[in-house]
Amino acid sequence: MSEVITSVSSDSLIIQDVIGEKVPNFINNAALFASSYLVGFLMMRSLTLVAFPTFLLLVVPGIMYGRMFMDGARKIRDEYEKAAVLAEQAVSSIRTVYSFVAERRTMSMFSNALEDSVKLGLRQGLAKGIAVGSNSVTFAIWAFMAWYGSRIVMYHDGKGGTVFAVGTAMEAWLSDPGFPTSNSTEGTVIENLSGDVEFRSVEFAYPSRLENIILRGFDLKVPAGKIVALVGGSGSGKSTVIALMETFYDPLGGEILLDGVDIRSIKLKWLRSQIGLVSQEPALFATSIKENLLFGKEEATMEEVLECSQLHLSAASGL
């Protein structure tokens, strides 16, 4: 449950950042880039053609930093999830922790779980510093444009005012070339979903307890439309199978297939939109039942809300 809360909180901040800042900035910069070069081509084609390749000196470092930033952010989130698991376990079993006088040990484990995230944060900060520093190449680009523009004025009957106007247009984009990055939305979508699920030689252990193997060579094949019950004692891996299917965790080995397609290659948002889950201990937000159900599908009609409520009641009563 703690991984879900951590993922929701971090992903909501990313979505807010994209909607509130990244998308408008991207549109602004894209429009500024296009209009700047359009004005340059119309006013002085030769100077603009010479200056055009220089934008790669700004874009390439930005793309490289974007990839490094996303990779680092993903690893940092994984490290935070490990720490969140420890915190959730300690809080939920606080009486046990207290009775065994394990407070210091728990705090030490939590601190150790955060050490890797600190190292990744420092590495991410270094990459950002290098990327921001690389923008100083704009001064060299401006100097080059001024020199080449002066050659056009002296030897090709160019006008100083036109050179200045083109240079100003180029400068407007060079001074703010930001190409924002956002989470990748890559992944396949199964067009005609049947619903066949297969666990093939799956190996899994929780990040906080890697020495405790939960699933070892686990095989399960569930044809579409079939009802299957997983039976076992506490800690045997029943809930783990569901968590793996929802991609809250990745298996250490083996494959989880949906209609023969590895779920790790499927678009995450689409995959989770195809799954409905009634957990043993459901958590409700402080609002109405209708609003809680609409969190799963905001555009749902009242008929769909009622149908979903009936399904929840049937599942809860074991029908």
Provide an overview of this structure.
With 319 residues, the protein is α+β, with helices and mostly antiparallel strands. It has three domains: 2-174, ABC transporter transmembrane region fold (Up-down Bundle); 189-277, Rossmann fold (3-Layer(aba) Sandwich), CATH 3.40.50; 280-319, no CATH class. It has eleven helices and four strands, in the order H-H-H-H-H-H-H-E-E-H-E-E-H-H-H. A four-stranded antiparallel sheet has the order 2-1-3-4, with no helix packed on it. The longest helix has 42 residues, at 2-43. Residues 177-184 have low confidence and may be disordered. InterPro entries: ABC1_TM_dom, ABC1_TM_sf, ABC_transporter-like_ATP-bd, P-loop_NTPase. Keywords: Glycoprotein, Membrane, Repeat, Transmembrane, Transmembrane helix, Transport. The chain crosses the membrane at residues 42-65, 129-149. One of its GO terms (molecular function) is ATP binding. Residues 1-170 form the ABC transmembrane type-1 domain.
Layout of strands and helices, then pairs:
Layout: H1 2-43, H2 45-51, H3 56-92, H4 94-99, H5 103-133, H6 137-155, H7 160-174, E1 197-204, E2 215-222, H8 238-245, E3 253-258, E4 261-262, H9 268-273, H10 289-294, H11 302-317
Antiparallel strand pairs: 1-2, 1-3, 3-4
Helix pairs in contact: 1-2, 1-3, 1-7, 3-5, 6-7
